[in-house]
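Hello,

Following up on my earlier ticket. Below are the two sequence lines again, exactly as submitted.
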Amino acid sequence: MGHAAIVGIGHSRFGRAPDKQLHELAWQAIRQALQDAGVTQRDIQFLVVGNAGGWSSELLPAVVVGEYAGLTPVGSMRVEAACASGSAALRAAATAVESGKADIALAVGVEKMTESTTMQIVEMIGRAGSFFWEFEHFGLTFPGYYAMYATAYMHEYRAKEEDLAAVAVKNHYYASLNPYAHFQKQITIEDVMKSRYVAWPLKLYDCSPQTDGAAAVVVASEEMAKKLTDTPIWIRAQGVATGTANLSKRDNFLSLEPAVLAAEQAYKQVGIERSQSYKYFDVAEVHDCFTIAEIIAYEDLGFVERGQGYALAREGETYKGGRIPVNLDGGLKAKGHPIAATGVSMAVELTKQLRQQNPESRQADIKKGLAVAHNIGGTGHYAYVTIFSLNKDVRFT
Amino acid sequence: MGHAAIVGIGHSRFGRAPDKQLHELAWQAIRQALQDAGVTQRDIQFLVVGNAGGWSSELLPAVVVGEYAGLTPVGSMRVEAACASGSAALRAAATAVESGKADIALAVGVEKMTESTTMQIVEMIGRAGSFFWEFEHFGLTFPGYYAMYATAYMHEYRAKEEDLAAVAVKNHYYASLNPYAHFQKQITIEDVMKSRYVAWPLKLYDCSPQTDGAAAVVVASEEMAKKLTDTPIWIRAQGVATGTANLSKRDNFLSLEPAVLAAEQAYKQVGIERSQSYKYFDVAEVHDCFTIAEIIAYEDLGFVERGQGYALAREGETYKGGRIPVNLDGGLKAKGHPIAATGVSMAVELTKQLRQQNPESRQADIKKGLAVAHNIGGTGHYAYVTIFSLNKDVRFT
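Thanks for your patience. The regenerated structure is below:
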């Protein structure tokens, strides 16, 4: 099996983009990624487009993106894994390279959500469970799914709404330092607590917004990566697992089991001990579609013991300089969450972190050369955990 | 790079399945494929679901299929490449194996089209070009796209409507021998000629139907394949290319350029000379969404010179025993075309052909141990050409 590295990154501004179509958003990210890699469209041998779709009119986004980006006749496919579609696209591009089918591949994640109304989006994302059973019969929406997790978590561990709010405050703070983020303003615990309930105990400021945006990465083989850059960022390991479509079949609502499984798979490939995992990473990106999701992610990734995730948030240990810095780009919560762009955006951010290209205010100290991305689809329906490294062969025993 | 082989196949009956949901159709195929491979759900390490969707209510089909098939928590993703989604799923499963990420992967293609009305399907498939430009502004539907190719072809080469009809007659003949096919009746040239025009010169009997169905294959690494079966069918080579989203940007309407490119890529990997390609294969599956598409496929694959494809059809040279037998399962035209199931169905059929498991009436003579599948998405928006072999290392120089 060959190795694959990120050698170029691109990112559109996240936010509402009523003046741009899906392929225009994608091109913003692709153009940057090609330039950053020092390659042209002719060098790309495979294109993977992550797009969940449904809210925009383009039913077959990959060919439209490909043509607009000048990539035709490069072979392509679209991949979808709900909100983890971006990580699935990264995986498909990486395996194309690792299998020897391509020397250079391009993964792009793009979503034009605001083409639909909020109610349409609520309806569509609500189907991210089992449409025929839980959505159709019980009418649960997506905030409702995560509210069940928040309720169970708060009951079990005596966490407070203010603890959830601390995640939103941190992520808005870092978004205010990130010009690509949807939200540019800092908020306070009080702001969160005063915001209206969406699904108790989750309030408006506990929720990620509806966002348009795109992110892209150029992925290259070992031989090609070494020609193109002095600092390839290796896609060192990836774990992937799924949860039941029906939430009623879950054992508990304190953990997303597939995230634990995906992390274990990835950690095993690098020799990382889960109970001490925070010691291995300089920085992490986790899937904070709701504030409770970030807290549970801390625990599912082994950054802290079960029931202690909210304390990590409360004590500021996931800010820069803390035990493990998380979402220094603002996270889904405040950078925005254009569904399929998110996983690729995580890869872009961690590449910048490992390259030490961020402004100091939101640049992690890079001492270990290792970073982890945790990308969830639905309510733990999909989990992709990806480890990025400066050292191709890094392995602990 | 490792090798990947098909070690298990499954196929639902194609047709209208008002009593079955998407995941039930998928399970019919998956269950057979697991049994045929002699494995259980626990052996599957990665699941790829090909599904174009849009016409059925399940927006996130892969997790629902995974749960229903007892595959949770196996990691998964959905892939889409329009009508070539099945070949894209096969590719994603094969690269997972070839890259060393999985020892055994499962690719399933499934579509529940008849949940929507014909007009809804016409509207959605019409978007298989560029929605914002050609579909929205000119109102072209999918038969209209291919009618432009048929018109250009007939004008350039003096082919007749009866020549197109010959393809439909052949494919209905073989469908009548295939219990999994949507249509079970033979038809005559006169039947085709008397059927009503959909988009001149294409008549109803020139068109593939709206079909529900699923197909599945178990893909294994070399080591695992040799443990599981005496006759692994190797996924020897695959080419993939794309065409412009907008048909107005095409150079001509006599050929699907990406099919030529994809074939060249695949042929190069095996050392096949394009101008003599029919000599290398025992049997082929080609994408006959409309009769004209099969004729152009003969030429794009190099089975015959440009402008001679219709003669091949007229002279019966693509029946069993002819120059190159094509679509001995009935093809899209008569077996049916449940969009994402089609590419996987082609892999299932060619596996059966190479294993010599078909009834004699539609079993090709297997002398060379090589077969080719040509799967198109949209109107040449995607092209996937896959070569299957009995000999893992077969290569011509």
